Amino acid sequence: MQVQEKRVVVLGAGIAGHTAAMFxxxxxxxxxxVRVVSPNAHYNWIxxxxxxxxxxxxxxxxxxxxxxxxxxxRIAFTQARATEIHPEGGRGHEKPYVVVQPVAPGSxxxxxxxxxxxxxxxxxxxxxxxxxxxxxxxGHSLSVCTAQHAEHAAAEFRKALDRLAHGERLTFVVGTGxxxxxxxxxxxxxxxxxxxxxxxxxxxxxxxxxxxxNEAELGDFGVxxxxxxxxxxxxxxxxxxxxxxxxxxxxxxxxxxxxxxxxGRVYWEDLQGEEFYLDFDFAMLLPPFxxxxxxxxxxxxxxxxxxxxxxxxxxxxxxxYTPKPYEEWSPRDWxxxxxxxxxxxxxxxxxxxxxxxxxxxPRANPKGTPISPAPPRTGMPSAIMGRAVAESIADxxxxxxxxPTHRASLAELGAACVASAGYNPFTxxxxxxxxxxxxxxxxxxxxxxxxKRDTFGEIGSAxxxxxIVLHHMFLYKARALPGWWLIPE
Length: 489
Ligand SMILES: Cc1cc2nc3c(=O)[nH]c(=O)nc-3n(C[C@H](O)[C@H](O)[C@H](O)COP(=O)(O)OP(=O)(O)OC[C@H]3O[C@@H](n4cnc5c(N)ncnc54)[C@H](O)[C@@H]3O)c2cc1C
Hints:
By secondary structure, this protein is of the alpha/beta class. It has 9 helices and 25 strands. The strands form 8 sheets. A 5-stranded parallel sheet has the order 5-2-1-9-22. Helix 1 (15-27) packs parallel to helix 8 (379-397). The relative contact order is 0.15.
């Protein structure tokens, strides 16, 4: 008797999706296919793009070709961009299916329909440069969000260094390119590296460096700031970050919503509603994120996108999305299984899930422009979610449970932000911040909302070495080399 093949489809081969696919393959029976659909031929260890963006690493050092790994590990791979989800089947399909647009060289570009028994949406962010006129590598600013963007930024940075070396005075702007950006930690780390590289060459006195951010205070990082234990004292992340900037002569602009970027000039309005501009020679400004803009249809072909997705394009999961005032939100509103409430065989992990509410208090200026960071979903939690969902699906497939068995709430997970400058283990240094939990819990941790023991900051070489070790460890794991599953997420 032929055993009917069943299939889990994972959309996206980034930190969350690649982790989910590898654990699914390890845990699922052989007659289950694990199929990854992703438009990129490579996995990108995005945190190290920062080093690519200042020319310390070539892009190939942060990219891993997926096809050989998937061939070796018996994971099926379709190089394509998913565009539609049909969670009830229809159009000749008994089973649910996704529509994908192949992008591999040589493919005819014809849409392909792939049926699934379980679906993991790990499509990460859509880099929404279009939200700000002139923002991004196709406009007038740079980005380090992909390895290619980072390589382009490095080439421009080299040119700027040459100009400094020839005696010119230049302005460098690094930060967020929209009032509702997230990932401030990445901009913070990049500005550190830019400053470090300029200083290393003895050119610092010719460079004005400005950190332009949508945060109302330095050190907010989209998590409402932290109270860090530093050398036995509790220090607000605002003081920690300001002191780092003061020490390095980095200026900062707070509460900025970038309105547009023109050749060599950035315009913004601030939380008071005032408008400004700054002329620059080099600008790396992060884009806001939105979901991958997948559309969903029921079995009759009716559009049910708003049932599966929040207006931000991120997928709804087991969070409490009831609209309520900021003060009434609770850590329990955050999802923990990442299962879609309407379609229990659909999950969303990493950046792809819709957060229930902001962590930083929402702010708007008198004109009504919202200016406050969106909640971050960093690498470590994204990988942990990917693994948790893989384990849950495996338990459900094996009949151990009808419900997800593994949980990974951001209200119960920690995160680390290591702003590490310089790749060299002997000359580099880092400002490292660790927090637990990511979503503050004032019932469990009165006053600060986070564990004092597990929320700390450190400046020096230790964080820098950890960052280098993590770079190698996670790339080893991504390559699925022997014992990869022993490396924690
Ligand atoms: C510059 C930078 C530095 C960072 N540094 C750190 C750090 O130091 N520490 C940290 O913890 N986090 C860091 N982060 C955040 C971290 O990179 C993210 O949390 C993490 O990548 C999220 O994982 P993900 O799988 O959700 O998304 P991604 O890793 O972005 O993966 C998304 C995947 O989905 C694919 N995809 C997109 N659209 C589709 C589609 N329609 N169909 C199918 N596939 C699709 C993409 O090609 C990609 O493979 C940084 C982020 C940036 C931008």
